[in-house]
Design a protein that fits this description.
This protein is 43% helix and 19% strand. The chain is built from 12 helices and 11 strands. The radius of gyration is 20 Å and the shape is globular.
Length: 319
């Protein structure tokens, strides 16, 4: 009778018992809601490789760009809740977007978090020949020339857009924000000199800064990053209000069966223990989430807090 009852529960959760026990028996698609090359894409590729090894199936990353990540997350929300479609989300797509796009086709309740993957550091980079020496010089120039400076981001509603908003709020300046389909295209335009700067994370900017193709202006932290030792912190740059922490997490559609969710959360923890993976994340100026953060409950609470935080930020006059 107990076996029959357990099987009935599994079926009621959306999958036959045998199917849930065998999960996954085919490749899993991870929706990445941005074009290739940005922070979410880079982190998605790294964790997909490790997750695939742990679960014994390929994790196929699919870039679905548009509307600051909302296009991809909408698709993920409407996917069959069977564990074969997962998504990587961030503070933009899964927190700020609810204020920016009131007509979104998904809500926080549309997803169940699997767990946090990594935490990132916001940063501002500028073109290498921009005629400003540091953050204060850029602020002075922007105040003398309202709207003339251009900063690129990964689309309205993206985490990069939020970084721009945080920077502008702290600096109290007026610049022209340029939206792209992802951080990669924005960075490419910066390296080509088509825009003056980008708002992004150190994760996706480190290589370009280290190579000298762009200049690191400031990082939103109190301690310099070992990967970018020459880039001043917000406090050193005279902009202590520019503080923040980005994050990336894995989400599945609501009603994904509990046994499948448990397998994915356990796989995320195991994947994160790989020393080479941890080193690669560290080399990208990011931090692997702790075991406590790799929990559904933790990310659910984080999303609730972040939604309110950015609702207030984006409600400020002029934002």
């Amino acid at each position: 009778m107990r076996r029959l009852w357990a099987a009935a529960v599994l079926v009621s959760l959306g999958l036959p018992a045998a199917a849930q026990e065998a999960y996954p028996d085919r490749p899993v698609t991870m929706i990445v809601p941005f074009a290739a090359g940005g922070t979410s894409d880079v982190i998605a590729r790294l964790i997909a490789e490790q997750l695939g090894t742990v679960i014994g199936q390929r994790i196929v990353n699919e870039n679905v760009a548009g509307a600051g990540g909302a296009t991809g997350l909408t698709r993920a929300a409407k996917a069959k809740p069977d564990g074969y479609t997962i998504a990587i989300g961030n503070v933009g797509t899964n927190a700020a977007a609810y204020t920016i796009y009131p007509d979104l086709q998904y809500t926080p309740a549309s997803f169940t978090p699997v767990g946090l993957i990594a935490k990132t550091v916001p940063a501002i980079a500028i073109k290498k020949d921009l005629a400003v020496a540091d953050t204060q010089a850029l602020i002075a120039y922007a105040k003398a020339n309202p709207g003339k400076l251009t900063l690129g981001h990964a689309g309205v509603g993206s985490s990069n857009y939020i970084i721009c908003k945080q920077f502008l709020s702290a600096a109290k300046i007026d610049v022209t924000l340029m939206g792209y389909r992802g951080a990669g295209p924005a960075l490419n335009d910066l390296m080509a000199g088509h825009i003056d700067g980008v708002c992004d994370t150190a994760t996706s900017l480190s290589s370009a800064i280290q190579a000298g193709t762009v200049r690191g202006l400031v990082v939103a932290t109190d301690k310099r990053l070992s990967t970018l030792p020459n880039v001043p912190t917000a406090t050193e740059a005279g902009l202590p209000a520019f503080q923040g922490e980005g994050w990336n997490a894995i989400f599945v559609p609501k009603d994904t069966p509990a046994p499948v969710l448990s397998k994915l959360t356990a796989a995320l923890r195991r994947a994160s223990e790989n020393p080479e993976y941890r080193k690669r994340i560290g080399d990208l100026s990011a931090v692997v989430a702790t075991p406590d953060e790799q929990e559904t409950a933790f990310v659910t609470g984080l999303v609730t807090q972040e939604v309110e935080k950015y609702r207030k930020l984006l409600a400020e006059p002029g934002k």
